[in-house]
Design a protein that fits this description.
Layout: H1 2-11, E1 16-21, H2 23-41, E2 46-52, H3 56-64, E3 70-78, E4 91-94, E5 104-112, H4 116-126, E6 132-140, E7 153-157, E8 163-164, E9 180-183
Parallel strand pairs: 2-3, 2-5, 5-6, 6-7
Antiparallel strand pairs: 1-9, 3-4, 8-9
The structure holds guanosine-5'-monophosphate and magnesium ion (2 copies).
One magnesium ion binds next to strand 5.
């Protein structure tokens, strides 16, 4: 109930040093973002491509705010291992199964950091000759960019801090937190898997 939820927000999570966005703030921004997306696509069909696992929650919430006919596919990219820093080159572990040739494609990711992941996935998608290709990220950590990349739709710009929750993990944990927060420094060392 509402009282329980309010308490939950106040307490946040013991492993977080700071909450950047509450569940409600995310919900409002996702709703507005869906409006921005509709403005660009109009009423027609498009294909959502979600980068899993990180973008699962964002994708699920965003697509429910979009009343266009949409198709959904996923790409699994491995990039971070268990640490908090990008380790070398991201790799596509499982690629598209839908045919995206001549389709309007919107790639969705949780966070844009160095830009390597989205640059890689956009290259891959581009080769499949979509009618159009755009990207949407919930978070943008501009200060960390290593390859030039701008997303077409951005939920929030954030400072250079390692964040978890709302799909984002540390060593596969914390994805289920409804808010997005900064993981405590002392917990940012790789635990047993
Ligand atoms: P990039 O290739 O842009 O450096 O990294 C993108 C991917 O790295 C994201 O899809 C996400 O999985 C991961 N990532 C980048 N920054 C963070 C962060 O602050 N927290 C978490 N949990 N993952 C991050
Ligand atoms: Mg990711
Ligand atoms: Mg991760």
């Amino acid at each position: 109930d509402t009282k329980h939820r309010a308490l939950h927000h106040a307490a946040s999570h013991p492993d977080l040093e700071e909450v950047l966005f509450t569940e409600d703030e995310i919900k409002q921004r996702v709703h507005a973002l869906a409006g921005e997306i509709k403005q660009v696509y109009g009423p027609g069909e498009f294909t959502l491509v979600s980068l899993i696992n990180g973008a699962v929650m964002f994708t699920a919430d965003l697509m429910r705010e979009i009343d266009n006919p949409v198709r959904l596919d996923c790409i699994r990219v491995k990039s971070y291992g268990t640490g908090t820093r990008s380790e070398g080159t991201p790799q596509v572990v499982a690629s598209l199964t839908l045919d995206v040739a001549n389709r309007d494609v919107l790639i969705i990711d949780d966070i844009l950091d160095t830009g390597k992941t989205l640059a890689l996935v956009c290259d891959l998608a581009c080769k499949l000759k979509p009618a159009s290709l755009r990207t949407c990220v919930l978070l943008d950590k501009k200060a960390r960019r290593e390859v030039r990349f701008e997303a077409d739709f951005v939920g929030f710009e954030i400072p250079n801090k390692f964040v978890v929750g709302y799909g984002l993990d540390f060593a596969e944990r914390y994805r289920n937190l409804p808010c997005i927060g900064v993981l405590k420094k002392e917990l940012q060392t790789a635990p047993a898997p």
